[in-house]
Design brief:
The protein is an alpha+beta fold and about 90 residues long. The protein has 2 domains: about 1-40; about 40-90, HU Protein, Chain A. Helix content is about 40%, strand content about 30%. α1 packs across α2 (about 20-40). The two termini are about 20 Å apart. The relative contact order is 0.13.
């Protein structure tokens, strides 16, 4: 499913809703999640899952072409953990 299809689903929930209003709702939800993660926060949607930020430690990797070791710096990455109900639906 694409962003456009999600916006269409939002619009379909109310026959009086315009596409512009559906896009605003979509943007508010995803911008809120993004902003919370940007501030190292966590977003939990009961029955769906949890979005959070995880820190990856610096490590030494290997260049697959030359075999030489290279330093991979530490960084933060977004992660998603599916909730119990979502896992049950996907089974």
């Amino acid at each position: 499913m694409t962003k456009t299809e999600l916006i269409q689903k939002i619009q379909d929930t109310d026959s009086n809703m315009t596409k512009k209003k559906a896009e605003e709702i979509f943007s508010v939800v995803f911008d809120s999640i993004r902003d919370e993660l940007k501030n190292n926060g966590k977003v939990t949607i009961t029955g769906f899952g949890t979005f959070s930020v995880k820190e990856r430690a610096a490590r030494v990797g290997v260049n697959p072409q030359s075999g030489e070791p290279l330093k991979i710096p530490a960084k933060k990455v977004p992660v998603f953990k599916a909730g119990k109900l979502l896992k049950e639906v996907v089974k």
